TrEMBL record:
Stretches assigned to coiled coil: none
Annotated protein name in UniProt: Dehydrogenase/reductase SDR family member on chromosome X-like
Keywords: Membrane, Oxidoreductase, Transmembrane, Transmembrane helix
Pfam families assigned: adh_short
PANTHER family: RETINOL DEHYDROGENASE, RETINOL DEHYDROGENASE 11
Metal-binding among keywords: no
InterPro entries registered for this protein in UniProt: NAD(P)-bd_dom_sf (IPR036291), SDR_fam (IPR002347)
Chain ranges passing through the membrane: 20-40
Organism encoding this protein: Cucurbita maxima (Pumpkin)
Amino acid sequence: MASMKTELKKVWQFLRSTEFWRMAVLWNLSILYSYLVLFFERFLSLSIKHRPGTSYSYERASSYTSEDVVPLCVITGATSGLGAAAALALSKRGFYVVLAGRSRHLLLKTMSEIKRQNEKALLKAFQVDLLSVQSILDFKNSLQLWLQGSKMHPSLQLLINNAGILATSSRSTSEGYDQMMATNYVGPFFLTQMLLPLLKNSPFPSRIVNVSSFTHRCVFDVQVDEDTICGKRFVGLDQYPCASIYEYSKLCLLLFSYELHRKLSLENGSNKVTVVVADPGVVKTNIMREVPTYLSRVAFTVLRLLRLLQLPEDGVNSILDAAFALPETSGVYFFGGDGRTVKSSAWSYDTKLAKELWAMSSNLFLKSQIAIEGGTCS
């Protein structure tokens, strides 16, 4: 009885918050907008060449493998939900899948489940905590050592930055970052920078897939400064703006993706590294675990009735579309499955903002490398 009262109190407090109504209204409008774009494009049967602002169906490559190299994939947040679903699907396509996650127990459990469904799966697990720059560096070093000691080619063909959280309370990492910003944006930025040499060393085209969210469309005021990226701006507020920070972190991931695409496209070389974004839509995962249970159940029920809620095995299709789009595909936003894309928000294509964010993030990355022990976001 006491636990029920406590839960109901949490529900009431959350219902009274601005963040709840932001999630309930703006997030639903954003997902509906994305699907409406796809619906009207299909309804009008536009069979024209892709142009900015229109949806387009990209064919999947028939093969992502080489006769001489077993393709290697790294997936973050691989212990459940979309990450686990992607790991299973990619193992069936011949990838050697590296599962990266915080919990050793869950990593082993996920590997066992994948093996049960695909006994021929090639799997390797590494513990990595995206909240810690030291942990990311240790993961990169461990991955390189493993590659050196194996018969694998010393390269990486596919990086899927899938890990993400929706935190409802303010928490900081040991290095001074807001945990949600660190998991959803800063960690993926640092990890990508550290693994780029392996991606560039691939004997055939390699790819980065960043998993973003339709919620990025709800950002109406973009601030690119160190305090915002680190999360210091949100410390001490009467109410932790969880929905706003989640949206902002996903927009940052988009700005980073498009800027990295622009930078890589200018580099010479036959085997390009491409960057694409995948938006799975609304998927029933444990990302809502910090939202009061009663509210998350109601939300999932409503979304299911609206036929917007997907299970991970269906939602993963956008990630697979992004992973297997033809090698020359880069800088696009996959949404809705069937190889379809839509245009992301206008803010996400702001090159000035993207360059500012890149410079700020790169500076933090360099400072973290120089003084990784005891380093703080200052």
